[in-house]
User: Fold these one by one.
Assistant:
Number 1:
Amino acid sequence: MRAIVVEDEKKMAALVQRALKEAGFLVDICARGDEAYEMLRRTPYDVAVLDIMLPGLDGLAIVKRLRAESVNTPILMLTARSGVEERIAGLETGADDYLGKPFAVEELVARVRALMRRRSGESVTLYRIGNLVMDVASRQVSRGDRRIDLTAREFALLQMFMRSVGRVFTRTQICEKVWEYHFDPGTNLVDKYVQRLRAKIEFPGESRLVHTIRNVGYCLSESAP
């Protein structure tokens, strides 16, 4: 397994590199955002640990550019800022997880391993409901003749629904399954992502697939539950 650590604080970078090496990774280190962006474009890393505050190009800009180019390397973002707004910004941009500084290296390694399990645990590669099709292997989604471009987080959300068609998920369950952390009732993160997903998979004239269950959550179904 190959990882890249993008961190301009030398001591922090060395600490994370050592921890990941002990966990069995080959680890590259980069201190500049613009250089890291080019490395992530060229090299098929299994995971990236990416600080937000970087010289050259910040972490949020890196993730946004990579996801726009369909580079779906799992990304764990690091930041010294603890505000909810920045955490949401990172996840909405396309990062897969978020860890605030200071952190225990054991937790960082555990989160990286969780990202790897989520990536390697795919057994079913094709999901279908009606004329909506998800190909996990190629990470392509289509409805009828229309191809649908999704961010990494939107893809994960849709995949969760398509794995369990007809099942009602609470907002807490969605947050824990897609973001792997406990739901914060003070944010509307889940609702915003569901709305964005709906806008992409449900065009005018097409049947509704994502249904709101009042006071409970959401489910994916060809007919209203």
Note: The mean pLDDT is 85.
Number 2:
Amino acid sequence: MDVPLIAVTFALVAFGLVAVYSATYALVPGDPFRFVRRQLLWAAGGSAAAAVLLFFDYRQWRRIARLIYFGTLLLLLSVLVIGRNIQGASRWIVIGPAQVQPSEFAKLAIIVTLARLLSSRESFHRPGDLVGPLVHVGLPMGLIMLQPDLGTALIFIGILFGMLFVAGVPVRYLVAMLAAGAGLFVAAAVVSSRGWIPIFKEYQLRRLLVFLDPYSDRTGAGWNVIQSMIAIGSGGFFGKGLFAGSQTQLNFLPARHTDFIFSVIGEELGFLGAFLLLGLYYLFLSRAVHLMNHARDNFGALIIAGVVSMIFCHVLVNVGMTLGIMPVTGLPLPFASVGGTSLVSNLLGVGMILNVHVRRHKILF
């Protein structure tokens, strides 16, 4: 077991619990620990699931990769049919008192199945060699965009590029793919804005436009970003102190315990608190990359690469949107934001990394 990775993971969870308590203790009168208690239960469940995952040799996942892939497609399709519609989006399946977001677990499934696909190829010297991986990731991405969930779909792109890079795909191919994808995205936005083909929803287009100028709709779509930037900027170097953030405690900052938890940290703990949190993410990612370099085989290394890409993209997009340098996509901050499915999937990702690590030694005769 890799103690440093486990320690930094629990440090991130603990950091998030402190921020969640400060952001939510006044939301439910008479029960200040409601959100913290729920987050602790999810953390315990996710840790237990990650521990159970260690008993199953990751090399055996290759045998059931196709079953995992098609099962994931079926699960994502079922969300569109029986999923609960909340604020115009069908992303959740209700299981008893819990709301589960299958797209979170789909990311882990695609990491495993894409790792099998890429590890079975010896080289990627021709552009045609990339068709299989693109289709492999494109199908679940399409189903997720139909929910609609553009933010999670973007994470799939990050996972794809990270794993392709580790698999040895030439950088020029990755740059060409990125340029082509950006061009298609702009074209889709233009087509949607003119009403020709509704590729993007109206609220998604508003978010893209507000990203360019939040003050163009300061009381509407730009409100979240503006309040977030005010909160982070007003925190200064040392912060205003826990429970003392004006934007947070006076309810100016929306979704402060989910999408904008980093804004709470920036306001109440200041630059030092934000720097400490980002430092913990750096330690997590650098340690995971170290374990990736010592993996037993290419399949295991690609699994770790997928989890690293997933966590990195989540942090990049979430922190970027709170600072106003990226569009608001509704992505949570890993290990910190309130969200049971997200927390469990991240902890399962840690379990996948440790699974590869504990079986790193080769038997030599």
Note: The chain is about 65% helix and 5% strand.
